[in-house]
Amino acid sequence: MMKVNQKIEEDGYPFGQQDLFMENIMFCGMCGFSDFLKSKWLKKILAWQDLETGCFGKTGNDEKSILSLKKSIN
């Protein structure tokens, strides 16, 4: 999962991969893998939130970014 998150970071956090990125951090962090708890990652995630609603919006081409990630980690 760390390899996946590092690839997502390297690719500039494409929108279609942001959810997976956050899920990996949450799940691995809860399981005791503190190397997933990086302040720069938290700052990036908080920057994706809409300041008024607190929600995360949709931009970009989700399908394309997911296919790109699958190819790069296989």
From TrEMBL:
Gene Ontology cellular-component annotations: cytosol; membrane
Annotated InterPro entries: DUF4735 (IPR031751)
**Mind telling me which Pfam families this protein's record contains?**
DUF4735 (PF15882)
Q: What is this protein called?
A: Uncharacterized protein
Species in which this protein is naturally found: Pleurodeles waltl
